[in-house]
Amino acid sequence: MTQKPAAAANPAVAEDNFVQPFTVPALDVRGRLVRLGPEVDRIIRRHGYPTSVSRCLAEAVALTTLLGTSLKFDGRFILQTQTDGPVSMLVVDFDTPDQIRACARFDAEAIAALPQDAKPGQLLGKGALVMTIDQGTDMNRYQGVVALDGGSLEDAAHQYFRQSEQIPTFVRLAAAEVFSAGSDGAWRAGGVMIQHLPDGGSAPRDIDPGDVPEGAEHVEMEEDDAWREARFLTETVEDHELTDPSVTSDQLLYRLYHERGVRVFEPLQLVERCRCTRDRVRDMLSNFPAEDVAGMVREDGLIEVTCEFCSQAYEFQKNEVGKE
Predict the structure, then answer these.
(1) Are 267 and 283 in the same domain?
(2) At CA 137, angle to CA 135 and CA 142, rounded to 5?
């Protein structure tokens, strides 16, 4: 993988829709920076989500891409929340190496009763964050489950790494609707994740395949000076630096780590794309019990299915799904 020092260049417009791997060798740190523009905006605009829901979902997309792009095989990484809050479910689906899709379920009345700047914990409430790795039909699926207890997605990510990998990890996420002169607002999201990998240590995985066995001893790692400095520097990231379209990844990484020497690698481009097809939807319907399919038939004799991710509507005759 190509690497180069991060530069302090100042182009007018930042890159968009990519994950930027980087390392800070002097601090024994590796990391990834994600910047999302039109792709995350397309997801949100398609559904017309309220502002607070949009922000929460955009942060979930940023977190998923930070984690999913670490996979070294063909497969899927799925992040899903199941909670009792106004936003009862977030689902972000990442298909390696570069495809994302996402959707949310929420209680519109409960959302309307909250301020637009409601914290993620107020939106999500209590429940679970489930992260699934799917390597295909011939391989086992692996899941990591983290409790959501009124905190943010950042909090849940930190808890996941503490319990599943015990790698010192720090995550920052941000999302905002950005307005510019003469144009409507556009949603943007960003995030940065760093991990401490001291020389001579083993190279742990980014995503652990499953939870730590029940009863396993949790080992508290002593925080060394290098990791303390790296975390302190990363904590200085402002939300606007992660979402501002005029701030490039090189600028941000240079601002954070230039005194220690940061090296960046070839970025991984991302695209919003749904997995649904007419054939897949038909196959899904064909697996439903006949009585369930009969209940879906409209007065005009057609069955309509709308994809929850991309809102694409598919229509079928009943005999097309093998229920005649």
Answers:
(1) no
(2) 45
Q: Looking at residue 25, what DSSP letter applies?
A: G
Element (H, E) at 189: strand 186-196
Rg for the chain, CA atoms, rounded:
21
Residues 146 and 184 in one domain: yes
Residue carrying the six token digits 């601002």: 255
Strand ordering across the sheet containing 76-83: 142-149, 126-134, 76-83, 87-95, 99-106, 271-272
With beta carbons less than 8 A apart as the criterion, state whether 280 and 39 touch.
no
Indicate if 27 and 75 belong to the same structural domain. Answer: yes
Tell which residue, 282, 279, 230, has the closest CA to residue 256.
230
The tally of domains found in the chain comes to 2
**Residues 159 and 147: beta-carbon distance below 8 Å:** yes
Helix (H) or strand (E) holding 114: none
Predicted TM-score (pTM) of this structure: 0.87
**Residues spanned by the domain of 203:** 16-272
Residue pLDDT tens, the chain, 324 long: 456 666 554 444 457 899 999 999 999 999 999 999 999 999 999 999 999 999 999 999 999 999 999 888 888 999 999 999 999 999 999 999 999 999 999 999 999 999 878 888 899 999 999 999 988 777 778 889 999 998 999 999 999 988 876 789 999 999 999 987 767 889 999 999 999 987 644 444 444 444 444 555 545 556 689 999 999 999 999 999 999 999 999 999 999 999 999 999 999 999 999 999 999 999 999 988 888 888 899 989 899 999 999 999 999 998 888 655
* Residues whose CB is less than 8 angstroms from the CB of residue 193 and which lie 6 or more positions away in sequence, other chains included: 31, 32, 66, 67, 157, 169, 170, 171, 172
